[in-house]
Amino acid sequence: MSKATGRRKSRELALQMLFQLDMAKQAPEEVRRMFWSERMDLDEDVRAFADDLFNIASQRAEEVDQVIVRNAHWRMDRMAAVDRNLLRVGVAECLGNPETPRPIIINEALEIARRFSTPESVTFINGVLDSVARELPEVKKQRTTSKKKSLQEKKSGK
Fold it and tell me: How many whole angstroms separate alpha carbon 22 and alpha carbon 61?
């Protein structure tokens, strides 16, 4: 499984766990335990990234939901359950992995929305996450900055 395919699978799994958390009103630890007990054959990297997204979204739930409401201009309870939880995955990834390019987060959410939600939802999710991306800009990887710095030093003769 490629890294990109694995990441998408992780995002889908995080969506499913958040949906279960949202609908069943269980504790996050209980959701995680039950969820993974039924999925023993997953790649460890896929599971780890899904867990990371779920942990960020559930531990920082109030912050995540505030970011969504601020950018969606809708109350959470008015959104379709799949949509609000997919938005939670996207915002959690923006908050927890600030170096991940925002267009990748948005595109992945849209692909998952096409699979699990409605055509109207795809447009809605795109608009909300685009707004979120402007509010929570990505952090450029340090390595890129170092390369630029060394290129500038070469040009200036240092």
Answer: 11
What the block records as the tokens of 124 is 């809605």
Structure token pair of residue 77: 């309870």
| pLDDT tens-digit readout, 79-132 | 999 999 999 999 999 999 999 999 999 999 999 999 999 999 999 999 999 999
Tell me how far apart the alpha carbons of residues 98 and 139 are, in angstroms, rounded to a whole number. Answer: 5
Candidates 31, 13, 34; CA nearest to 22 is 31
**What does the angle CA 19 – CA 22 – CA 26 come to, to the nearest 5 degrees?**
110
Nearest C-alpha neighbor of 12 from the set 95, 82, 97: 82
Q: How open is the CA angle 15-58-40, to the nearest 5 degrees?
A: 55
Four-point Cα dihedral 25, 27, 32, 38, nearest 10: -50
What gap in Å lies between CA 14 and CA 30, rounded to an integer?
14
Pick the CATH number of 3-156 from 1.10.940.10, 1.20.910.10, 1.10.8.640, 3.90.1170.10: 1.10.940.10
